[in-house]
Structures are given as C-alpha cells and as structure tokens.
Amino acid sequence: MKRKQLTNQAFFLTLLVMVSTSAVYAQQRATEINPMNSWIKAGINVGLPIGNLADQSSIALGADIKGQLMSTPNWGLGLASGYTHYFPKDEQENFGSVPIGIFARYYPASQGFFVGADAGYSFQTGSDLNGNGGMYARPQVGYHNRLWNVFGFYNGIFRKDTNGGIMQYVGIGTTFNIMFD
Question: What pLDDT was estimated at residue 11?
Fold first, then answer.
C-alpha cells in the first residue's frame, strides 16, 4: 500500500511541476512560433516492464512523436504522443498503449544534459483483459544537442480499473529533431 501511495505522490508531484511551469510561462509575453524555436521530435524507445506488468510482458518497444516550442532558451514545452507495444510472455495477450499528453524539458545549455517529464492520458489498445488506460507520467533525464536526444526514463500508467494497478517500465530512448528551416 505504501508503494502505491509513493507512486501516486510521484505522479502528482510531476504533474504539479509541469502545471506550475506552464503557468509561469503563460504569464510572460506569448512566444511567436517560428523555425528557430519549434520543431518535431521523432524517435524510438525500448523498456523493461517492472511490477505487475513484468508478469505479462517481457519487453516494451515504442515510437514517440512530439511537437516542441522553445519558450525560452532553456525551456522546451510541447505536445507528446506515440505508441508502445508490450510483447507478451507465454500465453499472455498482445497489447499496446497510445499516450496523449504535454511535456516540459529544461535544457541548462545548448548541448549537454537535460531533465524533463511527460504527463497526460494513455489509452490501452488490443486487449480487454488488461483493462483501460489511465493517467501517465514519464520523468526523464538525458543528453542532447541541436539534432538529437538520448535519454533514460520511467513510464507509469496509473489505472483505476479492477485489473488495475500501475503499468510501469523503465527504458532508454532517442529522438531526432526535425527542424523546419
């Protein structure tokens, strides 16, 4: 029970940080979207299921797509989506998830380490056995330059259904920045 409370607290803390960050920047003058401050991030990730998900799936493989706006030289904000497929263990069903959310990243320098988080809702596909989707959080830390990002992350999908629990995995990913200029 304490582990579930701790995970819920981590989710809500991540969500609070993202909402607070968005509110701070909403008060500033609106940033004009142009080819120098906005781009698409497309990438792949691979993860190892943990917790209850490890009983059903041996590996998670996903694709990410994000639209990012650099609202300041150090903060990237945007929309996130993608697809993750959970490869089943013996006699388990195939299923996947489609996240729809927002993200924030802090880049201390134009090249180097970054921290960030995605949050939103993740829809489940392909299996009634595993229940519905739920709210998700994906904190991450990584390395970046102008063209690409490499990062490690935790992904948790917090569900309320009777099959319930948290679908969680840890992984690594990479995205390529598709510039508009």
Answer: 60
